[in-house]
Design brief:
Blueprint: H1 3-22, H2 34-39, H3 42-45, H4 50-58, H5 67-80, H6 84-110, H7 113-125, H8 130-134, H9 139-160, H10 164-178, H11 187-196, H12 209-212, H13 226-232, H14 234-253, H15 265-284, E1 293-294, H16 302-321, H17 328-340, E2 352-354, H18 363-380, H19 387-409, H20 413-423, H21 428-440, H22 444-457, H23 459-472, H24 481-494, H25 500-512, H26 516-532, H27 536-550, H28 559-564
Helix pairs in contact: 1-6, 1-7, 1-19, 4-5, 5-6, 5-9, 6-7, 6-9, 7-18, 7-19, 9-10, 10-14, 11-17, 15-16, 17-18, 20-21, 21-22, 21-23, 22-23, 23-24, 23-25, 24-25, 25-26, 26-27
Amino acid sequence: MSPRLRTIIFCLCLILATSAVFEGVRNHQFVFDDLGFISRNSVVKDGLTWNGFTWAFTTRLMGIWHPVTWLSHMVDCQLFGVAPAGHHLMNLFFHIANTLLLFLLLLSCTKAEWPSFIAAALFAIHPLHVESVAWVAERKDVLSAFFWLLTMWAYVGYVRHPGWSRYALILIFFSLGLMAKPMLVTLPLVLVLWDYWPLRRWAPQGAAAAEAGPPVGTFPYPRTSLRRLVWEKIPLFILVVIFSLAAVQAQKAGAMVVSLADIPLGARISNALVAYVTYLGKTVYPLHLAVLYPHPGNAIPGWKVAVAGLGLVLLSWMIIRQALRYPYLPVGWLWFLGTLVPVIGLLQVGTQAMADRYTYIPLIGLFIMAAWGMADLAARWRCPKFLLPLGAGILIAVYGTAAWVQVGYWRNAVSLFQHTLSVTQNNLLIQGALGEALYFRGEVDQASVHFQEAIRLDPPLGLAGAAWVMATTSNPKFLNGAKAVELAKLANQMTSYQQPEPLDALAAAFAEAGNFPEAISTAERAAELARAGGRTDLAAEIQQRLALYRQGRPYRDEAYETFQK
């Protein structure tokens, strides 16, 4: 069988396996942030327009600046409207494309068929990647990874045939990736690792060329110094600085950056160390996955932090010691550690301790270690040739089955939130979200249970959440303006009428109760506080509701239509 035919067969196997695991997404609904990104976003729903194009490059909605991702959602709406199936299948299309790009990149650089296939297959079907594929709002993950891999392809082409035109292609793909998700800021450092293995353009200081071995592939690149290779990537580092500043400004505009007063630096470092070990554990044993893992704050035991830190140091030392003999080990390990740095929580954005979606690119490093490690062990132990594909097939089948089950939890908001609560504790946000989803579906008694739990965890926010759904549901059967006013007033008393969210809920409750003068004055105060706190997006949303109140109309939350299905 010719190498080209084997490559085609490998690609077809990857396509079929990925499609089998994720085919269920075509029947899934929008969940969670999908509503704000698509179904309730009037600009995105209009499809590709000049107004939408300019908005994509200027908005900081939800504390995010990712214009290329916004444009991709607009393309979906242009093609499929707001029917969820098309949006989900587009995510799956990009995931399959990324899987094939990864396989072909590894194969091109190493000429190792089975390790390249195993690494790509693990990337394709690992349960930790379900969130990035099954959640439409995480288009930024699959899209940014698409440009990440294209950047690496362009870089390999530049290394083989240097020239400014090829370097310009690197800059273009990298810029598009950063505009899809700023997490790509670590890519220039990964390219330096790629120079070490598999390209073999440099060796550790003091190591002889013979010790470091020949190039892995068939392209004998000239060796050079590490310093020169870093200087070669200066234009990429300049882009990193520019896009990092843009990302931080967007997060501040959306009030997404958590202050050190709320989560001190010590707590952040502790959580980061434990999160690294937890990511490793979930990579090997991917159970109890959730859409939100609440941040523990200062509640992590000291012994746990010490064990995690010591374990990471010892593991790193053992891997680095093997750098000359097994160069893929330090490359994969540092890929994993380094690409998680922007989202490991030292700059805390949001309320999560960690997130499955953050592993979409970092796990490539671990998959490289696993795939080439399996091949080397099989060669050292002189195993029969069929054992490597057999072992890989069993591993892929196990992870693929676990991923297929995980995909099922994402079919709608209720099933997703119920599963999350079954595997996490003290999850305020999900308790409120599940209460809202159940209430909008008409399951008031069950919704009350989760609203009560949210109130126990955080009385003001829990009360404001319950008030919100009673004041804004589209089903008149479940509207209760008087009760909503009562709950919202309690929430505002607890916050001394100084927080925009409870005030926003109270304004909506007043409007539902028919007291529009109070609704107007309360909404004006909420918008003022939101602007004073730098939360321009929230202020804009409140202004839109305020316009309705001035017309004598209550606000109706379109999320009801999604949860009702």
